[in-house]
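Allow me, if you will, to draw on your knowledge of protein folds for a short while. A protein sequence and the structure tokens that stand for its backbone fold form the material at issue. I would ask you to consider whether the tokens describe a fold that such a sequence might reasonably adopt. Thank you for your consideration; the sequence and its tokens are set out here:
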Amino acid sequence: MADTTLDVRDLPPAERHPKIHAAFDDLDAGESLTILNDHDPKPLFYEMQAEVDAFDVDNYTVEQRAPDEFAATFPKR
């Protein structure tokens, strides 16, 4: 199972979600996308949950590594 990591902390906020969605779309079933973000990506989680059928909600994880670093893993089914 492959895992892709995408650091979006240096991207302008308006570019983050489109880039994340494109990277997720490129995954095969069973793979996952881990994003590094400067805040808890809860809005992105809800967006993916509502709009992306291939998003494996049950296996989503988020870890706060530092005050301004969150690692969130979006698995694809």
Remarks:
- Residues 23 and 34 are 10 Å apart (CA to CA).
